[in-house]
Amino acid sequence: MKKTATVVLALSALALAAPPDRTVWNTIKPLGSPKAVKLVLAGKPLTYYTLDGEGIGTRVKGPSRLRISVRGHFGQGDANSREITLNVAMDGGDAKGTKLKCLRSKTASYAEGAEGESPGGREELILDVPQGEHIFSAKTDARASGAFAIPSTKKKILRTEMTPTGFEKAVAEVFQERERTWYFATQEKPVTLEVTGPTTLKLYTALNFNSSMRTATEWKLEALLDGAVAAEKTWKSSRSQTRSYPDEKSVVPGQMETIDLAIPEGRHKIEVRPRGTLSAAVRILIPTGDLDKIPKK
Fold this sequence. Notes:
Distance between the termini: 32 Å
Structural class: mainly beta
Oligomer: single chain
Number of helices: 0
Shape: globular
Strand content: over 45%
CATH class of the largest domain: Mainly Beta
CATH architecture of the largest domain: Sandwich
Helix content: under 10%
Low-confidence stretches: 1-21
CATH superfamily of the largest domain: Galactose-binding domain-like
Number of domains: 2
């Protein structure tokens, strides 16, 4: 599984910034007209730009941060891992190189490309931009594509995934090059946990399809608070075209749905289950700021 590279980049008046959790990033176009590289990740189109050769540049007004995303290029006969040097300069100064270990992506692809060619997983550098307007240039010593982004002013609630105390099965899923765990539930074997309120849980869920289920299926999920139904919702879901469980080949995840579950003050038992004979996958997230309400063991 790819991990974001940890790097040290020495530029005049510039320092590497540790990426803040859950920062919302806005992509910015590079200067000029560099060659675009069209990618597809989880069904979503992405636009990167050629980093090898002349590279790409951008103008950023500080103080701010600049994220440089890098994806190596892998040909049909290439190994699945390679090292690429990213050279970055500010305001025409000396370029400083950082080595990135790039791995062939298992989920991203080129929208247009020769058979066997694929992009690498996303590696990144996040830089502090000092006061004033600055021009950055970036290029690599090997075939690769990249994109620039700066932080958005939008605020995003930081959430932490909770581990249930009861469930039918824990299953790993690879989505957008990241691995996450889903917990399977049935009406007889719900996902259960205890939580301290007040808080609001975010429930992510998806119907589990077996190989014989081809059409959209109507189903209901209910969340119980101390044994009483506190929230329920009905959907008509289809099989997902972009998600899969690598270790559960006979099960296909459905479209992802969400429910917000308000938890009153005090300690409460939560149960989440689909109705009927169906199976569903569940993830439960709590606002990170509410974690201090959980009693220490």
